[in-house]
From TrEMBL:
Pfam annotation, one family: Cupin_2
InterPro entries attached to this UniProt entry: Cupin_2 (IPR013096), QDO-like (IPR053146)
Residue span, Cupin type-2 domain: 63-125
Biological source species: Streptomyces poriferorum
Record protein name field: Quercetin 2,3-dioxygenase
Length: 185
């Protein structure tokens, strides 16, 4: 399946028609879905709030070994991390201020409830992570990233502008935690 890039993203989404957009059975082959390039990753939405009546979204990220992402929290978004290939270290801070980090390898699972400050870093040479979030949040990666036909780690990174980052963080209620220090990071 190919995408037609739309110069004005405010018109119709360029990934329109890839997913049903309503609760209906469907299947995707490996790499299919709504793909966006973001930094050195390809994020693929497999299931959106549109197909689950707002309940949850499912996506994958494919990325190389990387840097720690910006620490953040979400007021009303729960997230899971399931490592399919490679490894990822998830950092989080409990409500009592206690920090925890866990290295997740293939088959390992992590859950971060809404309101918890967290971050992660991919540690394998090649990583594929399955994410599930509260419905609607899966679109954050598309708002921040750029449409791509690439199915794997991008050949050239996409760095969003500061304005685009601010808009995406605001729209999807990502609350950055600048200056957050993680033990062992």
């Amino acid at each position: 399946m190919t995408f037609d890039q739309v110069p004005d993203r405010r018109s119709k989404p360029s990934w329109e028609g890839v997913l049903p957009g309503r609760p209906a059975p469907f299947f995707l082959e490996d790499g299919d879905g709504e793909r966006a390039k973001l930094f050195d990753s390809v994020v693929t939405v497999l299931l959106s709030a549109d197909e689950t009546e707002g309940q949850f979204g499912v996506f994958t990220t494919r990325q190389p070994k990387g840097d720690l992402i910006v620490a953040h929290s979400h007021e009303d978004v729960h997230e899971i991390f399931y490592v399919v290939e490679g490894a990822a270290r998830v950092f989080l801070e409990h409500p009592d201020g206690r920090q925890e980090s866990r290295l997740l390898r293939p088959g390992d699972f992590g859950y971060v409830p809404a309101g918890i400050v967290h971050s992660y870093r991919t540690e394998g040479e090649y990583n594929k992570i399955l994410g599930v979030s509260t419905g609607g949040f899966e679109r954050f990666f598309q708002a921040l990233g750029d449409l791509t036909e690439e199915r794997d780690v991008p050949t050239t990174p996409f760095i969003p502008s500061p304005d685009r980052m601010q808009q995406a963080f605001t729209r999807y209620r990502n609350i950055p935690a600048p200056g957050q220090q993680w033990e062992g990071a």
